[in-house]
Amino acid sequence: PQTIYLSDYTPPAFLIDTVHLTFRLHPEKTRVISRIEFRPNPATQSRAFFLHGEGVTLIRASIDGQPVTPDMVQGGLRCDVPDAPFVWEAEVEIAPAQNTALEGLYMSNGMYCTQCEAEGFRKITYYPDRPDVMATFTVRIEGDMPVMLSNGDPVEQGGGVAVWHDPWPKPAYLFALVAGDLVNHPGAFTTRSGREVELNIWVRPGDEGKCAFAMDALKKSMTWDEEVYGREYDLDVFNIVAVDDFNMGAMENKGLNIFNSSCVLASPETSTDANFERIEAIIAHEYFHNWTGNRITCRDWFQLCLKEGLTVYRDSQFTSDMRSAPVKRIGDVIALRARQFREDNGPLAHPVRPESFVEINNFYTATVYEKGAEVIGMLKRLVGDEAYARALDLYFDRHDGQACTIEDWLAVFEEVTGRDLGQFKRWYSQVGTPRLRVTDDYKDGTYTLHFEQETPPTPGQPDKAPQVLPIAVGLLGPNGDEVRETTVLEMTEAKQSFVFEGLSARPVPSILRDFSAPVVLERETDNAERAFLLAHDTDPFNKWEAGRALAREGLIAMILQGAAPDAAYLDAVQSMARDDSLDPAFRALALGLPGQDDLAQTLHDRGHTPDPQAIWDALETLRQARAQHCQDLAVRLYAQYQVDAPYSPDAGQSGARALANAALALITRTDGGAQAQRQYDGATNMTQQLAALSCLLQAGKGEAAVAQFYDQWRDDRLVIDKWFMMQIVNADPEQAATVAGRLTQHPDFEMKNPNRFRATLGALAANPAGFHHAGGAGYRLLADWLIRLDPVNPQTTARMCSAFETWKRYDSSRQALIAEQLDRILATPDLSRDTTEMVSRIRG
Ligand code: HT7
Ligand code: ZN
Question: Can 227 be counted among the known catalytic residues?
Answer without folding.
Answer: no
